[in-house]
């Protein structure tokens, strides 16, 4: 237990130090996404007429989330390779032909730029 608390303390200290130096944004948005890109991606993902991710997924900060798809949490751990997450959003039928997820890119529901923005938002969750 002591070792765990020491790790937590060290991690907290490093996070505070990074934040104090103003480097937190580069750590959080390491994939090159700016804070405004993340916000734009969130807007698209939460928009009921565009991405509509909330129809199926639980996403922190979203109202009336669905529960027929996995919650979108710990996405960097689940998708260390951002390109795989983007491919999943673009056309999930490639990895799972039986999925009910809409192929947002193949069906041109979202543009490539919108898919990139949604990917940036989802990846940082």
Protein topology:
Elements: H1 2-21, H2 24-28, H3 35-46, H4 75-78, H5 82-90, H6 112-123
Helix pairs in contact: 3-6, 5-6
Features:
0% strand; mainly alpha; 125 residues; Cytochrome Bc1 Complex, Chain D, domain 2; 2 domains
Poorly predicted regions: 1-30
Count of DSSP E strands?
0
Residue fraction in strands = under 5%
CATH topology of the largest domain, anyone?
Answer: Cytochrome Bc1 Complex, Chain D, domain 2
Class by SSE composition: mainly alpha
CATH architecture of the largest domain: Orthogonal Bundle
CATH class of the largest domain: Mainly Alpha
Helix/strand order, N-terminal first: HHHHHH
Global Rg: 17 Å
How many domains? The number is: 2
The 3D shape can be described as globular
Helical coverage, percent range? 40-55%
The H-level CATH homologous superfamily of the largest domain, spelled out, is Cytochrome c-like domain
DSSP helical segment count: 6
How does the major sheet shape up? Answer: none
């Amino acid at each position: 237990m002591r070792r765990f608390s020491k790790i937590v303390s060290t991690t907290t200290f490093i996070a505070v130090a990074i934040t104090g130096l103003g480097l937190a944004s580069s750590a959080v948005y390491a994939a090159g996404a700016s804070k405004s890109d993340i916000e734009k991606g969130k807007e698209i993902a939460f928009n009921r007429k565009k991405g509509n991710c909330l129809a199926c997924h639980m996403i922190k900060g979203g109202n009336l989330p669905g529960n027929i798809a996995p919650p979108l949490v710990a996405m960097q751990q689940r998708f260390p390779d951002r390109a795989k997450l983007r491919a999943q959003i673009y056309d999930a039928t490639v990895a799972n032909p039986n999925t009910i997820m809409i192929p947002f890119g193949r069906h041109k529901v979202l543009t490539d730029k919108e898919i990139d923005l949604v990917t940036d938002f989802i990846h940082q969750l």
